[in-house]
Write a structure and sequence with these properties.
6% strand, 8 helices, 3-stranded antiparallel β-sheet, single chain, elongated
Length: 190
């Protein structure tokens, strides 16, 4: 049997577009802080640690491991960077001296604030004007669903509304490319 390219998915479900848009929205949602973190030589793991330590001062190593669901070895590598560069400090627990409590330094709080601000701005913009990203992938059914969302009506339990939100999360200059890509899949499925 020859290796043949698969031209379209075997089955399509209403959630497929949501999953695809979620990938694109996530890419851009984390892309904003990624650019800031790169200036410091940090990555997404550093971002997650900073975020939770900033949000929950005094978090223990064990609690952070539970939240992030990563190995102690992975956390230690990231914590070492953040501690050595004065973004996080460790303090000994008051009731249990074996505990290591984590706190952001002033630098850590400032960086965490910069990161959350760019992400909040993107989410706020998408929530404020999801119609700016209305999904029209090429079929009359898709266009009528999208226009239903603009009138406040939702189909399939809010799917169109969720699609519009996710599309609005994507960089404005990338939305047309995403729409074309999804329209190609919609046409091949028809």
């Amino acid at each position: 049997m020859e290796n043949a390219a698969i031209e379209s998915p075997a089955t399509e479900s209403p959630g497929d577009d949501l999953i695809e848009l979620l990938f694109f929205a996530y890419r851009d949602f984390v892309g904003d802080p990624d650019r800031i973190l790169a200036q410091y030589g940090f990555g997404r793991a550093h971002h997650r640690v900073l975020h939770f330590v900033d949000r929950y001062p005094g978090l223990t190593i064990a609690e952070l491991l539970d939240i992030l669901r990563i190995t102690k070895q992975s956390l230690n590598r990231v914590l070492k960077d953040l501690i050595e560069q004065d973004y996080i400090v460790q303090k000994t627990g008051t009731s249990d001296r074996r505990q290591r409590l984590l706190f952001c330094t002033e630098r850590g709080t400032a960086l965490a604030g910069d990161l959350i601000r760019v992400q909040t701005r993107r989410v706020t913009r998408a929530l404020a004007d999801p119609e700016d990203g209305i999904l029209e992938v090429g079929t009359s059914e898709d266009k009528s669903s999208a226009s239903g969302a603009s009138s406040g009506k939702s189909s399939e339990g809010g799917t169109v509304s969720a699609q519009n939100f996710l599309l609005a999360m994507i960089e404005p200059e990338e939305r047309a490319t995403v729409r074309r890509l999804m329209a190609r899949r919609a046409r091949s499925a028809a």
